[in-house]
Amino acid sequence: MADAEMLEARQRMIAKRFGGQSQSRTGGKGSVRRKKKAVHKTATSDDKKLGSTLKKLGVTNIPAIEEVNLFTNDGKVVHFSNPKVQASIAANTYVVSGPNETKQLTEMLPGIINQLGQDNLEHIKAIADNLQGAPGAAAAGKQEAEAEEDGDDDGIPDLVDNFEEAA
To answer: For the chain, what is the radius of gyration of the CA atoms?
Structure first.
């Protein structure tokens, strides 16, 4: 019983001296000294690093660009109006910065037809089918595609007579 009383007395002494916590200590005598102050990064430091990297590449400003459109694979357009455009021809690097909007291809359509290339041909066909507004036409297109996949050919007529009887 003396051991239990001794253990209980030790616990009370630790609680009295250290506030009940014997393991956690953030400072004071005997703690490890911090070697270096933690440096917090800000957005301006990132901008400075980016600017210095671009300066190393030798980019130059390209003036008088009114808009830039970047086409994505899923049919969306990242639209910059009055962007700041910089280029380094030697490094094959272009930097487009400024406020942008992500829009659907259909929202931009009348004005950007001349900017579309071969990559967007599928999106243009899908939009054209939707603009025709005939759900039957879309269904007919699907049936034709399925017929081609099945191996049905419209150029070869179906066999009508039994050719073995004629021989």
So the answer is: 37
